[in-house]
Amino acid sequence: MLLHPAITLYQTSNGPCPYLPDGQWITSVFYAGRITGRSYESLLEQGWRRSGCCFYYNICPDCSQCMPLRVDVKRFYPNRSQKRTLRHNRDITVECIPSVFDYQDYALYKKYCLSRFSQNPTEDDYQRFLVQSPLTTEIMRYRDGDSLIAAAWIDMLPDCVSSVYCAYDPACAQRSPGTLSILRQIDLCRQLRKSWLYLGFYVPASPRMSYKKSFRPGQIFRDQRWHDS
User: Fold this and answer.
1) CATH class belonging to 69-228
2) What confidence category does residue 83 fall into, taking pLDDT thresholds of 50, 70 and 90?
């Protein structure tokens, strides 16, 4: 991993693994209030991710289950299930704007966290995670009429888009909003002539992460290099 010599790396224990039982989440981290898109793109290629202004690389002992995943957007073609999701959501409108604090976005994120993880994030939690960004970050809002049903935060980089997070109204889960959001992000990449959409981690042993593997062709980062998936 090649980092600027002025960067200070820390090793951090983040508690229990968010994906697998009985595991501990250990990371190498550094903080940056500002970073160029090209620099972060290079870090993504080396397996790094970010949360707010914290950049991290997983170094969990005796585990290598969390593997960064990216989609080759120029070659991607939706499968039958993904086409069905698009048809089912033809009435959904999407806007993509710079990410700033908006209470409606926060309320959606809070509802999602309460339903999915039994967590109750504060406004400060939300701001640190999804509003504060050292990069150009945008939010894609998905609406059914006037109702906000989902939101996705994305980093806009020179040759790729990196998906930061997606939250949705649990009452709209039957619309497969997570899949819909990735499909719309792929469309955005194509419109902007980007090569890759980074989807965060794929964890083979975690059932809730399995849907990411269906976006093909793509690549998985393991053993310090990218492999076709």
Assistant:
1) alpha beta
2) very high
